[in-house]
Amino acid sequence: xxxxxxxxxxxxxxxxxxxxxxxxxxxxxxxxxxxxxxxxxxxxxxxxxxxxxxxxxxxxxxxxxxxxxxxxxxxxxxxxxxxxxxxxxxxxxxxxxxxxxxxxxxxxxxxxxxxxxxxxxxxxxxxxxxxxxxxxxxxxxxxxxxxxxxxxxxxxxxxxxxxxxxxxxxxxxxxxxxxxxxxxxxxxxxxxxxxxxxxxxxxxxxxxxxxxxxxxxxxxxxxxxxxxxxxxxxxxxxxxxxxxxxxxxxxxxxxxxxxxxxxxxxxxxxxxxxxxxxxxxxxxxxxxxxxxxxxxxxxxxxxxxxxxxxxxxxxxxxxxxxxxxxxxxxxxxxxxxxxxxxxxxxxxxxxxxxxxxxxxxxxxxxxxxxxxxxxxxxxxxxxxxxxxxxxxxxxxxxxxxxxxxxxxxxxxxxxxxxxxxxxxxxxxxxxxxxxxxxxxxxxxxxxxxxxxxxxxxxxxxxxxxxxxxxxxxxxxxxxxxxxxxxxxxxxxxxxxxxxxxxxxxxxxxxxxxxxxxxxxxxxxxxxxxxxxxxxxxxxxxxxxxxxxxxxxxxxxxxxxxxxxxxxxxxxxxxxxxxxxxxxxxxxxxxxxxxxxxxxxxxxxxxxxxxxxxxxxxxxxxxxxxxxx
Length: 628
Hints:
Helices cover about 10% and strands about 35% of the residues. By secondary structure, it is mainly β. The strands form 12 sheets. Strands 30, 31, 32, 34, 35 and 36 form a 6-stranded antiparallel beta sheet that branches. A 5-stranded mixed beta sheet has the order 5-4-3-6-7. The protein has a 5-stranded mixed beta sheet with strand order 15-25-20-17-18, with no helix packed on it. A hairpin with a 2-residue loop joins strand 38 (about 560) and strand 39. The longest helix is centred in the N-terminal third of the chain and has 14 residues, at about 1-15. The chain starts with a helix and ends in a 12-residue tail after the last helix.
């Protein structure tokens, strides 16, 4: 274990020169739960005028332990925290996601003592992502955040230095502070994509707000803008219209407000997914989590002319007996149970406009006063078409079904750098030879979350290397995934359908003679995407062995020699960035003769060869479109 911790510490030092080393000037907001189960939101404390001090540490870091034992933050918290002058808040945030509560208490290996004993301020565990967000490059890192959201690295301050810092914070960060608090515009139907955009803005500052510029953007491009003029007193809100726009499909629209000398940028943006999602199959799945009063819920899926194609829940509530405020819902044999996940798969017409209706008898929705109920409607690929849960009497959302197409083929090939043998100019098949390949496709877990049902055929090709995941993306928006399919990659680099026979991957949701982007994903190699769109179906194989065919060219692949290029090995957690998290996957892997995400060479175990790939490729980053 000591070797593991030493290497992870070394990796944090390597991070100093990586993309994560930049400390944000304005503190991003966060909500964390401490080890006692209490929730804390950064901006809540800053809005109270407090300075927040954060100690990022790990249980195995000796300088962290020395500073902890020094007691400077303990003294500062006792004197100036909630039980003192109430001017500061202190958090102790442990960064290593593999740390256990026992290690925080000084039990077992990988810890230098009991970190919880005598610590009066909140302690939070397993926060690697938060540390990366804050640009932490070593331990301990002590940040102080003034109420105006500005950050300063205090090194390892003594108690008086903490006092000096918060005394010098700006007096009132909210003298001028404009905020966007909600989207109030229209929701599209699939027969009408014209959206009337509007938002609710708030004067979160201390002086009257008289002007502001509000914009709406999609993928960084402004689609609507308005200059608001008025008079808004402190804490007051008003609705502002941005006009009408047309969207194709669903888009994440980012609304932003700007005013001169705005003291708090953290509340300037608000995101809302708008438009109507399209399913390319007539099969959809409803996942409904009920609240504490499941009998109050009823739902329907309707087509054109209000035809009901599917329904569920309490028919006594129906579509009219909703929002009555009554204490007891009508009796129905089909009432849903309380606080349980209800799932139903529904087959609809092949094409058309549909709407999902959900009603609540009492009129308080299914979230969040009496349980955290929610609903999601998904297509056959697991893509979420619509979702919700927080409403009053009812909620209605639209979606679209496009007629499915007969299966078309995409023919492609690639090299996996970790499996490639330069002597044979082919990839090794040890996983097949040792009978280690999983029967079902391995991409159902995070971060891929692919719910395909592909399984190995009875006559699996003897030169099979591994499973691989193929994605087809929209030509007009390379972030939009049209279809995903798990397939098999063979030793010569060719990719065959999961049936083990078809040369190419069978796709059911693409339109023949149409151009698409192609993405190739693998469980421990950096994912890649085609540089240009490819007309499908294709007869000649599209080759990811050719760097010129790849978005990012030679920066996104590894040179195998002889003009051949392969996917870059080492992305053991599949997020598209080679970091210490991949080191953790490799170090936590102890099994032999198994199917392992840390096994970059596909020999059934994790050895120095796998670490060498990761070390040589450290800090490699996939393009934005394929990172998780």
